[in-house]
Specification:
single chain, 12 helices, alpha+beta, 12 strands, flat, four-stranded mixed β-sheet, GMP Synthetase, Chain A, domain 3
Length: 361
């Protein structure tokens, strides 16, 4: 890093330059992560998060995948599923793997969720026996790294920019139950808000946004962009295509928190992509509730397919590393603790999987 010494030969070297130099020399990206989440720098950052309504094309696909899973679980709690949905422009395709004793009328479920007549194609097969043999012995259904998070920025323990964007979307969806998106950028107490909703006049959206933020007097809406490309009535699958699992940041905590494993919807909870992500969230919230002095918790759980114990179970508690103890983190232990054999997953696909009064909190 000779060039740093030359550039700053007669001046103090900024801390950020030192930090980035350490990262380049050690190839340790985790150092950057810990630095920004254990310093006052994070309080100076501008933060943005978005939310989409249940009628967004990607969310429709998530909801279909989870509705099929729930119907299977009603009849067979031991169902193994990995259902993927793709839709757009008059046709919805459902594919994936499904091993179950249940009988499911997939086209009927698709049309019930979508709410209109639409063409349905299906191509569903049984789970691979080579994957199944690892799950049969209690092992994880896949490898992966799952992230759990909790903070004290609101009563749902979620990043505030994500929380505001989601609650605003719910508020508008109550009047305009169509395809729509919200986005909130926080710069201290100043907000920049974006809101686009099908069949909603921009002037009405502006009034609704300002009415919503009347309940948050600490914040000032600095700029407001409602239907910035113009009012629109063509939405959902008439305007765009959708795919299961394509709104991962919306399903989790927004872009502030790293994403670890894969998508949630359509998967039974032998897939640790889903169950261990829920468990990581539960552990993070438990730490906050049990230790009032703690402000922010990141949890990481990592698994190998066919193996029942995590390869990593650790937490970053206000920037300090801790090992997680006192939980059964096998797939069976998680499923039993969180009661994940029940048909509860359609609700998770509507407004995000965290902070909505589920057993994982």
């Amino acid at each position: 890093m000779w060039w740093i010494g030359r550039i700053y030969r007669f001046r103090p070297i900024p801390l950020e330059i030192i930090i980035y130099s350490i990262i380049l020399l050690t190839n340790n990206a985790n150092f950057l992560f810990i630095y920004f989440h254990n310093s006052n720098n994070k309080n100076k950052m501008i933060r943005t998060a978005e939310c989409v309504s249940p009628k967004h094309p990607d969310k429709i696909c998530d909801r279909i995948s989870d509705a099929i899973l729930d119907e299977c679980l009603k009849q067979d709690p031991n169902t193994r599923a990995a259902i993927e949905t793709m839709g757009g422009h008059g046709i919805i395709t459902v594919t994936g793997e499904l091993t179950t004793e249940a009988w499911v009328d997939v086209p009927t479920i698709v049309k019930e969720v979508y709410g209109e007549e639409i063409g349905v194609q299906t191509n569903i097969v049984k789970q691979s026996p080579e994957i199944s043999q690892g799950v049969d012995t209690g092992g994880a259904g896949d490898q992966g790294i799952m992230i759990g998070y909790a903070c004290r920025e609101n009563d749902e323990f979620l990043p505030q920019e994500y929380y505001l964007s989601r609650e605003l979307n719910k508020f508008i969806y109550g009047k305009y139950p169509y395809d729509g998106k919200t986005q909130v950028t926080m710069n201290g107490n100043s907000l920049r808000v974006v809101c686009s909703f099908q069949n909603a006049p921009a002037d009405d959206l502006k009034c609704m946004v300002l009415e919503f933020f009347d309940d948050f007097p600490l914040y000032h809406v600095e700029s407001l962009h409602c239907n910035p490309a113009g009012d629109w009535s063509l939405g959902g699958f008439d305007a765009d295509a959708g795919l299961t699992g394509r709104k991962l940041a919306v399903d989790n905590y927004g872009p502030r928190v790293p994403l670890g494993g894969g998508a949630f919807s359509g998967k039974d909870c032998t897939k640790v992509d889903r169950s261990a992500a829920y468990m990581a969230r539960r552990i993070a919230v438990d730490i906050l509730e049990e230790r009032p002095e703690v402000q922010e918790v990141f949890v990481q759980l990592a698994y190998a397919i066919g193996y029942d114990q995590p390869l990593q179970a650790s937490a970053l508690v206000d920037g300090e590393h801790e090992f997680i103890k006192g939980y059964d983190l096998s797939p069976k232990g998680i499923i039993d603790f969180l009661d994940l054999r029940k048909p509860i997953f359609s609700k998770t696909a509507e407004w995000g999987h965290m902070g909505s009064n589920f057993s994982w909190k």
